[in-house]
């Protein structure tokens, strides 16, 4: 009777253990502008260089990533609290199924733009910045420079501090 649940949990555990550690080479880019431009899934044009004056969270994530999904309430809370004050979120999805991504972001009320190229770990933007594990959450300051490569820790506090500068 409990075998399907055990199989499901074992499958999830195996998948999580197979994920690479959250690592990246973003530290080398800290203090420098990020060259991120794309047309979002919803048709919006995103260009970080044109978002100066705003604090931007660049969220490398995927719908199949448990820890990424676990961060959504924190990202939404920060977005809801600070969006009107100049906080933006840009999602960089490592998903391979566009329909799943669209359905998921809609069901979660994720109003921010999402990059999708269907290449999973070969995603052009995440590969460019050396993302080897997700979630990876980076904050860009009002000057357009990468300010923090570990925004998961105290996201709202970090956003408030950058907005106050």
How would the blueprint of this fold be written?
Blueprint: H1 3-18, E1 37-39, E2 45-47, E3 55-61, H2 66-82, E4 87-93, H3 98-108, E5 114-115, H4 124-128, E6 136-140, E7 146-148, H5 155-164
Parallel strand pairs: 3-4, 4-5
Antiparallel strand pairs: 1-2, 3-6, 6-7
What share of the residues lie within helices?
25-40%
Order of helices and strands: HEEEHEHEHEEH
Please give the order of strands in the largest beta sheet: 5-4-3-6-7
Number of strands: 7
Mean pLDDT score: 88
How many DSSP helices? 5
Architecture in CATH? 3-Layer(aba) Sandwich
List the uncertain runs.
Answer: 1-25
Principal-axis shape: globular
CA gyration radius, whole angstroms:
16 Å
CATH class: Alpha Beta
Question: Which band does the percent of strand residues land in?
Answer: 15-25%
Counting structural domains, the number is: 1
CATH H level, superfamily name: Glutaredoxin
